[in-house]
Design a protein that fits this description.
Layout: H1 2-136, H2 148-153, H3 168-182, H4 185-190, H5 197-211, H6 214-222, H7 225-235, H8 239-252, H9 256-264, H10 267-277, H11 281-294, H12 301-306, H13 309-315, H14 322-344, H15 353-356, H16 360-365, H17 372-386, H18 392-397, H19 400-410, H20 414-426, H21 428-436
Helix pairs in contact: 1-3, 1-5, 5-8, 7-8, 8-11, 10-11, 10-13, 11-14, 14-17, 17-19, 17-20, 19-20
């Protein structure tokens, strides 16, 4: 019984313990639940605080960005205001300038109308001048001389008056009267730049015939006529203009001062280009005559050769027209005489620039040309070349010695024959070579 009691007490004790454990367990669970709730609330609160801080940071960043954008916008607005102000100022200035230009255009229009009326009047007068010029300058023949030395030294005019024309002086007086009273030189020269080709042709004819008179040449050059004529060679495509302008330049090139001006303004290059493009033999004759006149100036020898003057002359022999060849021969003779004089005075050494540029074969080939106007210039050129000892070997090798011997024996011009004989006898290399060949001089 007692045992049963102990068992019962034991069971009761266990039950109590179990109940107590259960109570404690529920208590612990409640406490854990309350503790978890408190932790959750703390975590939530922390998360809310972090989110709020992030939002504040973001707002600050956006505010800073907006502030910067506003500042940039304000600067752009200020810049646009400045540009607008400048644009208004420029517009005001432009309007003022446009007003001035309109006034200038109105004035130019009035001036143009006035000039057109004046040009119409000048063209009528120019036609009359051109007609008179054609009458007085018909033929444009190259003059000749009876003296061999003068043939070389003379700067031949390209527009000489025909001999025996009884009305020539009357025509000349008519031109002079129109020139002095009706149409001023500057007005005539201005018409060289006219758009109408016929007007330019008439104008250049008048200038060419005026240039044939020595008394007019200085006035023409001072008024810019030489420059205008050279410009025509470079700007015009009309060969008639080229021909007449070249003739006028040749007339002006009879003066030593004008020769230097022609060279200084690139005249050799323009004349050479004109010769290259020319098809009419008379154009080549005028160009060759102009260069031939320049060849007679001993101050221009080197410059003329360097700028292609000799080569231009030789290039024109392609034409084969006797009038052209006569002018080429005259140019070579002029050049040779100047060189001979410089060599004898000691101001030039070495062989001829003519030989350097390959002129000797053509000279030898034409030394016995059928045309006396060609032959007499070539004979003189050979005599002058032979006076320079430095040319002797080239002349012997090129066959020029035999031509000199022929000239000294058979030339119909006694003065040239005598010059050739003296030259052969005074040049040591020729004397030695003739003695070696047993040829009597």
């Amino acid at each position: 019984k007692e045992r049963h009691k102990y068992q019962k007490d034991y069971m009761d004790a266990v039950k109590n313990l179990e109940e107590q454990w259960a109570v404690n367990q529920r208590k612990q669970n409640n406490e854990a639940t309350m503790s978890g709730a408190k932790d959750g609330l703390a975590d939530k609160s922390c998360r809310e605080e972090v989110a709020a801080a992030d939002k504040v940071t973001e707002l600050k960043r956006l505010l800073q960005k907006e502030t910067l954008m506003r500042k940039v916008s304000e600067e752009e607005v200020n810049d646009l205001k400045s540009q607008l102000s400048q644009s208004k100022m420029l517009e005001t200035a432009a309007n003022s300038e446009i007003l001035k230009l309109n006034q200038m255009l109105d004035e130019e229009a009035c001036q143009r109308e006035k000039l057109e009326r004046e040009i119409a009047m000048l063209q009528g007068q120019l036609l009359q001048l051109s007609f008179e010029a054609d009458e007085t300058g018909r033929g444009l023949d190259i003059g000749t001389s009876n003296n061999a030395q003068d043939d070389v030294d003379t700067r031949v005019s390209q527009a000489q008056q025909p001999e025996g024309n009884e009305t020539g002086s009357d025509d000349k007086s008519s031109i002079a009267k129109l020139f002095e009273q009706g149409v001023g030189l500057h007005k005539i020269l201005s018409l060289l730049e006219a758009e109408d080709v016929d007007v330019r042709i008439h104008a250049v004819k008048v200038v060419a015939n005026l240039a044939a008179e020595e008394s007019n040449q200085e006035k023409i050059v001072e008024a810019g006529g030489l420059t205008s004529l050279l410009n025509l060679l470079g700007t015009s495509d009309d060969e008639t203009i080229h021909r007449i302008a070249s003739g006028a330049i040749a007339n002006l090139a009879m003066n030593e001062t004008n020769q230097e001006l022609i060279m200084a303004e690139g005249g050799i290059g323009l004349l050479s280009l004109t010769a290259t493009n020319a098809e009419d033999p008379q154009t080549l004759r005028m160009v060759a005559g102009a260069i031939a006149n320049l060849c007679g100036n001993n101050k221009l020898q080197s410059k003329l050769q360097n700028e292609g003057g000799i080569r231009a002359l030789l290039g024109m022999v392609r034409c084969r027209h006797p009038d052209v060849l006569a002018q080429v021969a005259r140019g070579i003779a002029n050049f040779a005489k100047c060189e001979s004089r410089a060599s004898s005075q000691g101001s030039k050494a070495g062989r001829s620039l003519l030989i350097d540029d390959g002129a000797l074969p053509w000279i030898v080939q034409n030394a016995n040309n059928e045309a006396s106007s060609i032959r007499r210039h070539i004979e003189l050129a050979l005599c002058h070349l032979a006076q320079n000892e430095a040319n002797a070997n080239d002349m012997i090798n090129g066959g020029a010695l035999w031509e000199l011997v022929r000239i000294s024996r058979d030339c119909t011009r006694v003065d040239i024959q005598s010059l050739a004989r003296r030259t052969l006898g005074s040049t040591p290399t020729f004397v030695s070579e003739l003695r070696r060949l047993r040829v009597d001089n």
